[in-house]
Amino acid sequence: MEAKESGKSRKWYYKLARVILFYICSIAVLIFTSIFTKNVSAKIADQLSILCATILTFILVLIFTHWEKLKLKDVGIIPGAAGTAIASGLVYFLGWLVGWVVAGFRQQRL
User: Fold this and answer.
1) Are 50 and 100 found together in one domain?
2) pLDDT above 90 covers what percent of the chain?
3) How many CA atoms lie within 13 A of 15 on its CB side?
4) How many structural domains is the chain composed of?
5) Same domain, yes or no: 59 and 84
6) For a pLDDT cut of 70, what percent of the chain falls above it?
7) Given this model, what pLDDT does residue 80 score?
8) Mean per-residue pLDDT for 34-61?
9) Residues 53, 94: one domain?
């Protein structure tokens, strides 16, 4: 029984270590893209930084999903039927919320 519990705790630590490694790699991607776009014109630096960070983060997700032997559908990159319904409802709600916030700020200015 103790050996079984020890195996579970090792798996838990292993999963935690992978999550922390992904987090550290994500931070490294953001730092790299910030340094990479430092010498670029200020007009496009932010957009280029976001584009590079998005592409590199997606590659990072591909690496980690391959490592874990998961499919992109399993981690939510490729939505299923239920995920599409949830996402569309979330987008509708956020649009409604933003509309109310904008209307509230506009009312305060008047």
Assistant:
1) no
2) 27
3) 6
4) 2
5) no
6) 79
7) 64
8) 89
9) no
